[in-house]
Amino acid sequence: IKDLLYRIRIDTEWNLKNKMKFGLIQMMRKRKQVIPLIGFMALSVAGATFASLYFLFTKSDVILNKSRNPEPWERVDPSKPQKLVTINQKWRPIKELEQVKSMTK
User: Fold this and answer.
1) 8-state DSSP, 67
2) Is residue 39 predicted with pLDDT exceeding 80?
3) From CA 32, how far away is CA 26, in angstroms rounded?
């Protein structure tokens, strides 16, 4: 009896999973106007994920742990552009400002 109940439970779980998988495909076959909506939503989710990961790993002013680095703006390299696109921008340090910075630390 236990073996029979186990088989029934496994078959029921398998059928539910397959119904959920094929339910989306059947819905897309029935309602073809939903396909572009699903495509645009998937593209926007992928783009947002890519942009978040790109800025997290490449930009020095994006932080996750504030307790380890309470003043992240002090570690930003001014010679490295922080914008996504930088056209003809060159940075030179101001001597007076650097002196004041070194005195306050």
Assistant:
1) T
2) yes
3) 10
